[in-house]
């Protein structure tokens, strides 16, 4: 068959720690004829994937280069420290960056927090990935400060985590190439922003109902009877007219009584 078009599809990239399940489910409910494909990417390569058309849009970690990419900030994550379950920090609800001053804190090469200076004492060597750093924490080599979603992603039964104050926070955003803001991208933006299926910004919306025009009033029959015809004098009340005629005839025809 010639001249056939490829079936439209939407490719959604996402960085580690982001769970796009909720938005994917809504997409499948609203646009069942357009398949959505998930593309897992690292935080470092996410923007190159978007620029290279490897995905139509993606959940990324800020900051975003606004020169050619659009972004909608979605939420800010809590920063936590990952520690062994038998560590002293596991006994408290929250710690500060200063509380980690004497601890060896691992700083992986794929770290997603924008540090001016990481807390604690640096390890002899930086782990290549966050997953490698988690393994080192389990081995008692040091501690790890990460966004909470990454602590959950790399959860182990022998580890736990606690919130840390006084540290950078990671923000998640939806991003896409500005020059490729397609209808499908607009549809997904609407889903992420919580718009309903009938939103004025969405494509899949029901036509607005036109306001019914008021029905013309039927002429008042009694009023029509009361209104004289053009060029004719108004008719006298039949009852009054006949009564008047009889009265006149009676007066003319009945003799007067003598006093």
TrEMBL record:
Residues 196-259 are annotated as: Disordered. Residues 230-240 have a biased composition (Low complexity). Residues 22-194 form the LysR substrate-binding domain. It holds the Pfam family LysR_substrate. CDD domains: PBP2_LTTR_aromatics_like. It comes from the Bacteria. Residues 249-259 have a biased composition (Basic residues). Residues 210-220 have a biased composition (Basic and acidic residues). Gene3D superfamilies: 3.40.190.290, Periplasmic binding protein-like II. InterPro entries: LysR_subst-bd. Keywords: DNA-binding, Transcription, Transcription regulation. Belongs to the LysR transcriptional regulatory family. This is LysR substrate-binding domain-containing protein. It comes from Streptomyces crystallinus. The lineage of its organism: Bacteria, Bacillati, Actinomycetota, Actinomycetes, Kitasatosporales.
């Amino acid at each position: 068959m010639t001249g056939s078009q490829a079936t439209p599809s939407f490719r959604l990239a996402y960085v580690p720690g982001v769970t796009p399940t909720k938005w994917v489910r809504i997409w499948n409910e609203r646009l069942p004829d357009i398949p959505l494909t998930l593309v897992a990417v690292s935080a470092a390569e996410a923007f190159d994937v978007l620029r290279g058309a490897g995905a139509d849009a993606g959940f990324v970690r800020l900051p975003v280069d606004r020169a050619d990419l659009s972004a909608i900030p979605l939420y800010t994550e809590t920063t936590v420290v990952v520690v062994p379950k038998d560590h002293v920090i596991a006994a408290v609800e929250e710690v500060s960056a200063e509380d980690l001053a004497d601890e060896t804190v691992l700083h992986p090469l794929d770290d997603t927090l924008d540090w001016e200076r990481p807390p604690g004492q640096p390890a002899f060597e930086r782990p290549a990935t966050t997953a490698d750093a988690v393994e080192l924490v389990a081995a008692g080599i040091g501690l790890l400060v990460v966004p909470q979603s990454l602590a959950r992603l790399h959860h182990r039964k022998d580890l736990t985590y606690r919130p840390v104050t006084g540290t950078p926070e990671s923000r998640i955003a939806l991003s896409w190439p500005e020059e490729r803001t397609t209808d499908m991208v607009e549809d997904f933006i609407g889903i992420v922003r919580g718009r309903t299926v009938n939103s004025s910004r969405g494509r899949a919306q029901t036509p607005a109902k036109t306001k019914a025009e008021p029905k013309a009033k039927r002429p008042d029959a009694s009023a029509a009877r009361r209104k004289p015809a053009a060029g004719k004098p108004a008719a006298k009340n039949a009852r009054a007219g006949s009564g008047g005629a009889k009265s006149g005839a009676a007066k003319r025809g009945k003799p007067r009584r003598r006093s």
